[in-house]
Structures are given as C-alpha cells and as structure tokens.
Amino acid sequence: MAKAHHLILLLLLLLSATLQFSSSSPSDHLYNVGELVPLFVNKVGPFNNPSETYEYYDLPFCAPVPIVKKKESLGEVLNGDRLSNALYEFKFREDKIDEILCPKKLTIDQIAFFKRAINREFYFQFYLDDLPFWGFIGKLEEDGWTPGGGGSNYYLFTHVQFHVLYNGNQIIQVNAFGDPNRAVDITKDVGIDVKFTYSVTWNATKIRFENRMDRYSRASLMSVHQQVHWFSFINSIVIILLLTGLLALLYMRHLRIDLKKYSNANEEDKEVGWKSLHGDVFRPPPNPSLLFAVVGTGTHLLILICVLLFLALIGTLYPYNRGGLLNWLVLLYALFSVFAGYTAASFHGLFAENGWERTVGLAGVLYTGPVFVAASILNIVAISYRATVGLPFGSIIVILVLFTFLAIPLLAFGGVIGYRFRSKFQSPSATKRHPREIQQLAWYRRTPFLMFIGGLVPFSAIVLQLHQVYASMWGYKIYTLPSILFVTFIPAIVIIALVSIGLTYIQLSVEDHEWWWRSVLCGGSTAIFMFVYCIYFYVRSNMSGFLQLSFFIGYNACLCYAFFLIFGAISFRVSFLFVLFIYHNVKRE
After folding, report:
1. TM segments (predicted)?
2. Could you tell me the end-to-end alpha-carbon distance of the chain, in angstroms, rounded to an integer?
C-alpha cells in the first residue's frame, strides 16, 4: 500500500510539472495563439512634468464597468503607478482592424478637459505583458491661415494604432500612436459625438526575449551619450591621479620632513606647526552626539547605495521593473538601520561611557525626520492636485508600520551591539586641560573657503554623469548603465577622501585643532554643489507648475542631503585615520 501511495504521489507531481511547463501564462510571458494578453492602463500627465501624473480615467476616456484596479506593491504606489483594467482586448497574434472601443458623446466640460490636456501635451502610459509604452492623446496646431492672426486648433486622437512584435510565443515590443488622419477637431466648445476605435497588428521579429528591453536603453547607448559617460569616467580618473600626485608630494616633501624634524628637534622647536597640537587635536568635539549620529547615518546611507548599485549591476534591479527600485529602497533602508545604530554607538563609545542612547536616537531621526516632513508636505500638495504621486492612507500606514516594527528595533539593536563591543580610544598623547587658542586665520583658510574647495573638486569629476542621472530622474531617458554609474561613484569617493586629507593637513599646519566638524562640512559640501546644479537643471528644462516645482525641489533636497551625510561621513573617517596616523608616527621623548 505504501508503495502504491508513493507511486500515485509521484505521478501526480509529474503531471503537475508537465502541466506547468506546457501551459502558458502572463507570469512566465508565454502565450498561445489567441490567448488573451493582459493590458493595463496606467496614468496620464503633461510631457514636461514627470511628477505630475493622474489616473488614466480622470480624463473622459472609454472606461469599463466596473473599473478594476490592479493590486500594486508599495514601490509601485510610491512611483505613482495606478494600473487599471481597460476595454482594449489583445489576443496573441490576432490582428484587429478598426475595433470599436465605445461611442461617446463628449459634453462641453469634457471637451474642456481634453483641450487643457492637449494644450499641455498630455501623454498616456499603458502596460502590455509588463512592457511600458506611451502615446499622446491629441495634438495642437497653430492656425496661421486664419485672418487676424490665427488661433490654435485642438485635435483629439480617437483611433489608436498598436504595433506588437513577437518572437515565438513571447511578446518583444509594443508601440502605440494616435492616427492623425482620424483625429477629431474639438476646437469649438460644443458637445460632439465621437467613436473611439483601435487597431492591433502583430509582426514577427528575430529579437530575443532577453533583449526586448534594449530599445528603452537606446537613448542612453547612443554614441554621443557613450562619449559623455566615458569622458566623465576619464575626467574622474585624471583628477584622482592629480590629487594622488599632490598628496604624494605633500607626504614626501612636507609630512616626512616634519615627522623627521619633530623627532629630532628640541622641545622648543617641537611646539610649532601641527605637532604643537598634540595636546588638543584629540579633544572631544563640540556636540559629539550629533557628530557621531552624522557618521552613523552617512555610513547607513553609503551601504544602502552600494548595495543598490550592486543589485543593479547583477540585474536584480532594472529600469522597467515597476516599483522595483523603490521596493528595495524602502526595505533595505529599514534593514540597514542596524548599521546606523552600530556606527553611532561605537564611535560614541570611543570617547564617552554614557549617553550613547541619545546618539543612536539622533542617528535614527537625522535623515528620516527631515524626509518624513518633506514627504508629508509633498503628499498634501499631491493630494490637493489629485495626482497619482499622492500616497493613499493605506500605504502611509504600511510605511509607518515598517519603520516602527523593523527599522527602529534594528537601529536599537545595532546601538546595543556597537556599545557593548566598543573599544576604548587610545590617544597618542594626553589631552590638555585647557584648549589651545586658535589664531586669527586668513580668509582662504577658514571654513567657507575650504568647503568651497572641498566641494568643487569632487563635483567637477561627477558633473557630467550627474546630468545623465538628473535626465533619467526628471525626464524620460531610462538610465541603463549602472556599471558606469558605479565606476563614477567609486572615484568620487576616492577624490573626496584625498581632498579631505589635504584640507585636514592644511588646517593642522596653521595650528587649528578644530578639525572634527570641518572635515564633515568639507566632505559634505559636494552635495551643496549638486543641489545648486539641480536648480540650474530645472531652469534649463521645460518643467513648470507648482506641483512639479515642489516635487523637484523636495526630492532633490532629500537626495542631496543624503549625499551630504554620506560624503561627510567618508571625509570624517578618512581625516580621523589620517590624524591618528601622523600623530602616532611622531616619536616623543
């Protein structure tokens, strides 16, 4: 009986496996001839304002009854996607010619809606078999023949032509465009009867399924853009080589001479230059809890960005994966909060026994707090415009639960681990009871000018690549070169580290021992240049309107603030190691 039972079970497993491999479904992107292919309408919006999007049926198009909204992930909601079912019917490899979608009598108000949308160059976005495609809803023509100066004519596309390419039993490419020869003139403010129709043509192609997304990357892979990418990379490498040479010169001609001189000099000669600061250079900085919270949060965000770039490199993240990036971003941010707690507590434990809880708490709110405030304000603006980027109440609850029951406990856990396994800081020399007075410095040795230099040099290495990133974020150029982005990010970190070492040495050479916060500010100042450049990018773009301006400024402020913390943490760590190195190498009596 047992053998018969096992045999029956084995046969059932084999049968189910056979059915799985022989059947087709949207999940594996395999279809039989005549099988229904899922199509979803997503959103509409003005072409020049990528953040200003509305649900497709906010415009009076033909709508199914009832409208069924697709269940979406948190990342899709954050991305502003609102997928719904449609009256369009796609059957695999079955052509349709002049299929009637619905007849509709447009009222004066509905005509006004369409005219405003056409005037702002509204586009629509659909998904067929998880392939995004776009099209315009109408066109605007200036009537130059009308006596008296002419006006504008509004034409609504009532017929959409779909071209679908397939290879075997898989869909490769989808295109859609409105037929201008069958557009309806809606210039006059009067009701009108229209008939919405569509056609679908299927054609075979030799493009493989694995390469079906290459068409979305052509804008980034054109020869001109490739030249820009590689020029940016070469520019970074040249700057690194120059800085390395300067620092090598600094070490060979100045630092080594100083170390040798201070080791052999008498006591009076030792008390000049950076050596004279041995009793003050390791004095705990002002507001140490805030400083170490900055380092912890910057480390947290640095690890997050490195992991996201790695996922992009191995193909887990790709630009056409709806909400994929934001899903990973939210989840990994919550998970990696353990690094923020650990780093903040471990640095705090180097210099103090008590108060690490405050440092860890600051690390938890230093970035999350401002982002939460900015996101709340932007969400109110989006809801007032009824835009899809406005988060529904359920999604807000999910985010709050995620951070309350995952991010905060992991932050506290990292803080406990960092404090329990802390190491006591061993200063190369005893710290004096009273701090050394700092002499009046020239303007080019003060913090604002050092911040300018510390930000300008790294920014000059990444500015070309930064333009490509902004064009991807605030335009319709899908960024598909994570490898170039990765090899640009790494040189930027190296440049910031090298510049930080040079500026710290210059500061110590003029007997200024307050290097702690200045190292953070000089490293993070690159983000200030990034924010200034984003303003320049907005002015040069065609974006307009309060909603788009709010989201552009708000999102870029949060992004640049994140990089300020990242670069500031890197600069502080490198400066700290450099200061330890030079004072450990001084031979004292």
Report:
1. 230-252, 290-318, 330-352, 364-387, 393-421, 442-464, 484-508, 520-539, 551-583
2. 90
